[in-house]
Amino acid sequence: MRLLHTSDWHLGRALHRVSMLDAQAAFIGHLVATVRERGVDAVVVSGDVYDRAVPPLAAVELFDDALHRLAELGVPTVMISGNHDSARRLGVGAGLIDRAGIHLRTDPAGCGEPVVLTDAHGDVAFYGLPYLEPALVKDEFGVERAGHEAVLGAAMDRVRADLAARPGGTRSVVLAHAFVTGGEISDSERDITVGGVASVPSAVFAGVDYVALGHLHGSQTLTERVRYSGSPLAYSFSEADHRKSMWLVELGAAGELTAAERVDCPVPRPLARVRGELEDLLADPGLARHEDAWIEATLTDPVRPDDPMARLCERFPHTLSLVFDPARAPEEPGVSYARRLKDRTDQQIAEDFVTHVRGAGPDEKERAVLRDAFDAVRADDMLREVAG
């Protein structure tokens, strides 16, 4: 059986206020084309279909279009909710949609009830484990202490129990949305830490043939049978070096992986991080390859330059993020804040603050403004003392 594994669509999400809706629509088109052209037998979507619990209308319309196009192909799709989704909203109409071959699994109580598909070698049981928020599902799974490993382990116990009751030779696929130990994170994933522990060991999935993971945005192979597809698009500059793809996996007659291929996703525009002083970034010929990319620029000028964003955009018109990290001499170690202020006037302290923030001290006009401000405060204090 040939499976196409994807996750973390985050429909409705923007990149630094730039709408990604067109790029997301292009990905859906690419997904449908891949299913049709590569002879896919089933599509698995491992959560975070939307970017937030109440998605914008345009994102809902795109999801609706995706469901119709997948249903028209006649290729079954199994989909779970992630931590960004509202499980209740995503699961509305699941029973009816099920008849069209789109199997939404958003209810934790249904973890042990698979979607069973059949090929020439027999049955394949697909178990959908939606994102399990420990505090909300601990009672459902009868665990005493809320934790990711405990609730996911209890859900997998249900999976293994159901699988053991099925005819011998039944192959198995688990969809899960979780942070599994060994996975590499980015800046894009929402923190799911509970009690300081968010990750679960990959051994919790023992006993199944393939685990299609969602949540982390980089495509990763934790073990031969446990994989993250990653997100189809980059949603932060920490993903600038990611190769965005889906997994095309083949399960053999005995549940062995006979093939695992990464299918690249369309890139709307590359991402790049550049760092240095402004004039160097504007002049460096080696950066010409990034002139059409979405840019995060980190300026290391010791003094903040004038109008840096406008000047950067003259060369890099798609600059989205500007960060200042001035290269300055380190402050004297071991010197307390009180000692630094000792014997310094209010005026000197204020001027030091300007220097610290901007990288250069105030000019004469700015010093005069500071003096006038302090004089006004002192005069006001004196008036209050007289009135009192």
UniProtKB/TrEMBL annotation:
GO molecular function: 3'-5' exonuclease activity; endonuclease activity
The organism of origin for this protein: Streptomyces spectabilis
Pfam name, any one: SbcD_C
NCBIfam families listed in its UniProt record: sbcd (TIGR00619)
UniProt family annotation: Belongs to the SbcD family.
Coiled-coil ranges per UniProt: none
Lineage: Bacteria, Bacillati, Actinomycetota, Actinomycetes, Kitasatosporales
Name of the molecule in the record: Nuclease SbcCD subunit D
Keywords: DNA recombination, DNA replication, Endonuclease, Exonuclease, Hydrolase, Nuclease
